[in-house]
Amino acid sequence: MKRVRGPFEEEFNYSNEVRAKLLHKSHYVICDETPCDNLAIALELYPSHVEQLHTFICSACTANLHDERILELHLEEFHNPLNPPQPDLSNPIKGLRCYEPNCYCRFLNHSHRVHHLRVDHYYPSSFNFDIVYGNMSKK
């Protein structure tokens, strides 16, 4: 799923020649970090762009995550060697956790978590429920 761009970000990928001209004019910064891939960002918006898109990076796989909570869940679900591939709900500290910080529900699988988020927390169906995967392909 493509990420939603901010209202002032321009959705253009530029050749090196055009990049150089833009940078020379100093109106834009070309962001070549994942997932931007040579996106032109208005200079005045660049600090907020970095904060929103490049602050929560997984040190293990470089996945770009939405916020600290999602990064924490990502690390737990994908890179914790003590976390089994199949959640075990008989153990209260195992299982996939809810995205909501103050919710302590655990789930056997991602589908159950999505159902919980929709029903109990009223997440819209348009929400990117795969957000915990970052730029990784879904396992």
Automatic annotation (TrEMBL):
InterPro entries: ZNF511, Znf_C2H2_type. Residues 58-79 form the C2H2-type domain. It comes from the Eukaryota. Signal peptide: none annotated. This is C2H2-type domain-containing protein.
